Amino acid sequence: MARPFRPFAVTRAGPNDHLGVLLSTHATSVILAATEGHEGEGGFHTPSISDFFPSAILFEGTIFQIDRLWIIRIIATLVLLSIFVIAARRAKVVPGRFQTAIEFLLSFVRVQIGEEIMGKERSRRFVPMLTTIFLSILAFNLTGVIPGLNLAGTSRIGLPLVLALWVFVTYWAVGIRKHGLGGYLRSNLFPPGVPWPIYAILTPIELLQLLIIRPGSLMVRLVANMVAGHIILVLCFAATQFFVVDSAGTGLMFFGLLTLPAGIFMTLFEVLVAFLQAYIFALLAAAYINMSLEEEH
Question: What residues make up the domain containing 150?
């Protein structure tokens, strides 16, 4: 018979166990005392959903309201456009390192996303769209790890929603153009080779997928990853600030030696996540468009 789980079971303790309890109790008391001492004085900053809704800077209370996140998006857009304008004007037959990096990104989207999913001929007309999606998301994601900006432009639902709707309209438009409205709905909602009674279950699911699940999977995944990344980074660096600076003299500086490397590691990890999320969004966009062009699904 398995032993029942007892989270507060009393066990026989040795002399070292008593010492460990005393030390852990003392450390907890010090941390709580330090936290209380800095409460309300700009000490430890706990991340919250309000970080993604900063105060308005211009046009407060209107549909044109501009806050810090909008300014971050504008900066990212201007930087991205400037990079490609400069690359286009300085293009040479023998590329330098800057031109090579730009051409690598463009080739990556064309080959690894477009041609890999849709084939060389079919992907040609959609490469500009996929490239715009990939580079825009990458630029907006990276603002979350840039000092002074520290907030991803995709961490609020509006921008991912616009990009997801672009993909949604595109795969419906190309599917209807090729198959007609009736043919497109029939091929998606009533896939061949399925017993008729199964359509009572399958057809509503397929309709839900066309209308909600596909665009929802694009925007929710992107927003969730950017929000989670921001919260983790704020926790690491706010904890470092608190332990090293705000709690000086309380014996908590040691913990800063743990939170600072963790923050640096998570920053590098967020750069990887920024690239992966841009890649996944563009990859799924290509897959959804390609499914609309297929004869059978």
Answer: 47-293
